[in-house]
Amino acid sequence: MKITRTLTLIGSLLAMLTACTTASPSGSVVPERDIKAAAAKFRNATILDIDLFQPITTIGERCEPRPLASRTVSKEKLSKALAEAQSYSVAQKGVGLIVVHDGEIIHESYIDGVTAKTPTDSFSMHKSLLALILGVAIDEKIIGSLNDPVEKYIDEWKNDPRGKITIKQLLNMESGLQLYSFTDPDGKSMALLLSADINAVAMEHPLFDRPGAEFRYNNVNSQILGIVLERALKRKGSGSYADYLEQKLWCAVGNDTAKLWLDREGGTPHYYSGLFTNPHNWARIGELVRNGGQADGQQILSTKWLRKMRQAAPTNPNYGLHIWIGSPHVDKRRYSKQNPLSVIHSEAYRAKDVVFFDGFGGQRVYIIPSQKITIVRTGQVNMAYDDSTIVNLVLDGLVD
């Protein structure tokens, strides 16, 4: 079955851009970039057009991939539920769906030329991965603690009110930093996406209100977290973000390759997005979370950190440390008071412990530890996608 490639929302927004350039906080010379021209190539982009995102760096080439086991489902009720989940995903522009139960794939389906090896744009699912590797860095004392103020790592913000923002507030999306609309006439939001120095753009964001006052889902929070991590790694001589992610997490769970989108050659990753990989790799990351930080008998990530990730932010019961929390139920999940976009949750999840990675327009990794389930779903951008449907179909199918 073939899905027509329509314009994504992000492509439409990119068409509105005006030219914008930035300066590096380190004082180094950064090539000027006309963002309007840079945006033009993305106007017709879909989640499959990852070759448009340049430059990139690749992780996982030194990994030893471990295949996911699979088994055939014999239970008629579960087979029917999985078929219905697939049908719903496809109807909502889905291109891939994997369901893992108790460590084995019980459903896997693809359309539109996608296969198990096809990398796609995961959008903000990268944010949750960033939180996982930050947990490793805290466990290894590369970063002190969740309560560290960012001025401890970002010298430019010392003696600046923004320097008092804590790592936890950034992870909880409660930093108080300004949220710019994609339709902002000054192009600030798109500069964070397409500038030749996105760290400089991130560090120019002013405070909008008091840190901790309000939940505001904002890409700049993740970019600042990435700056904190990269500088902490540099101080400890622990390599780059890409090296650290590959060594401490990506290879450890048995993944193969992924690509990270950089702002320029030798530049920085987009820590809030811009990670392109295949659904099997996302399934193994989901399984790492489901299994309490263990993979192949090794403790990759502490259970203590995963518990902290699942604890609700003070200002949003459905958001933890860069991960979404399924309960309590909300009919429409909002990203902020300022953002008009919302995601449909037509029903409460059948399980109370659902957590998930959210990528724009329907990219998901759902994790349900109580039912030993991990679900990976990828699809073309579609804001009509209902977050509860696939999860509840699978959970209903498991019930005897």
Task: Spell out the key features of this protein.
single chain; 400 residues; alpha+beta
Describe this structure in words.
This protein is of the alpha+beta class and 400 residues long. Helix content is 30%, strand content 15%. It is built from 12 helices and 15 strands. The chain has helices at 9-14, 35-40, 76-91, 125-139, 167-171, 188-194, 198-203, 219-236, 241-250, 279-290, 303-310, 389-398, and strands at residues 56-59, 69-70, 94-101, 104-110, 120-121, 258-261, 275-277, 294-295, 298-299, 324-325, 332-334, 342-344, 355-359, 363-368, 373-379. The strands form 4 sheets. A 7-stranded mixed sheet has the order 2-4-3-15-14-13-10, with helices on both faces. β3 (94-101) and β4 (104-110) form a beta hairpin. It is globular and about 65 Å long. The two termini are 32 Å apart. The relative contact order is 0.18. Residues 1-23 have low confidence and may be disordered.
How far apart lie the N and C ends?
A: 32 Å
User: How large is the count of helical segments?
Assistant: 12
List segments where confidence is low: pLDDT < 50 over at least 5 consecutive residues. 1-23
The average pLDDT is 92
Radius of gyration from the alpha-carbon trace, in angstroms: 20 Å
Give the CA-based shape.
globular
For the biggest sheet, the summary is:
7 strands, mixed
Numbering strands along the chain, what is their spatial order in the largest sheet? 2-4-3-15-14-13-10
